[in-house]
Design goal:
This protein is mainly α. The chain has helices spanning 11-15, 17-27, 30-42, 46-57, 63-70, 74-86, 110-123, 126-152; strands at residues 61-62, 90-95, 98-103.
C-alpha cells in the first residue's frame, strides 16, 4: 500500500483501500460533504459575499450595477457571478446585451439558511450598510443619467 503515500494511523493498511472507499460511499460521506464544502467555499470570498449582499438588497441587478457599486472590472464581476450561478446561488436573465442576476435559492435549502444567517450577521455591520447606501446612490445616479441621456438621444445603460 506504499504507492498511496503515508496514511496516518495506518487505516488503509488495516482495512485496505477498497474497503475504505466502500465504507465512505455507504456512509454517504463523499457526496454531501463535497456539496457542503462547495457551499462554504463559495462564501469564503469577500467579493462574492458583497455580491450576495447586494442581491439580497435588490430583487435583480445588472452586472454593470455590481461593477459600479463594488468598483470592480466586468471580467471580475462576471467571473464571480458565474461561480455563484454554477453553485445555484443566482439565476441570470439576458436583456439585450446586459445580464441581470437574482438570487435563486430554494426556501428551506442549506443555501437559504446560509443567506438568512449572512443577512443577520451583515445587517449590523457598518461596512455592509455602507455598501447598501452605495447601491442606492448608484441606482439613483444611474436613473438620473438615463433620463438625461434619453432627453439628449444618447445611448445609456438600459439595465434595471
Amino acid at each position: 500500500m506504499e504507492e498511496f503515500g503515508p496514511c496516518p494511523g495506518g487505516i488503509l493498511r488495516i482495512f485496505g483501500i477498497k474497503n475504505f472507499i466502500d465504507n465512505m460511499r455507504l456512509s454517504g460521506y463523499k457526496k454531501p460533504m463535497k456539496s457542503e464544502a462547495r457551499l462554504f467555499k463559495s462564501l469564503a470570498d469577500e467579493t462574492r459575499l458583497k455580491i450576495l449582499w447586494l442581491l439580497m438588497a435588490r430583487e435583480e441587478l445588472c452586472v454593470c450595477d455590481i461593477m459600479g457599486v463594488l468598483g470592480i472590472t466586468q471580467s471580475k464581476a462576471s467571473r464571480h457571478l458565474r461561480y455563484l450561478y454554477h453553485l445555484g446561488w443566482v439565476n441570470d436573465r439576458r436583456e439585450g446585451v446586459w445580464m441581470n442576476y437574482r438570487l435563486s435559492v430554494a426556501p428551506g435549502s442549506p443555501e437559504d439558511k446560509q443567506l438568512k444567517l449572512l443577512a443577520e450577521i451583515l445587517d449590523s455591520r457598518p461596512e455592509a450598510q455602507a455598501l447598501k447606501d452605495r447601491l442606492a446612490q448608484w441606482l439613483a445616479a444611474k436613473g438620473q443619467s438615463k433620463e438625461g441621456a434619453a432627453s439628449e438621444g444618447a445611448a445609456a445603460c438600459q439595465c434595471s
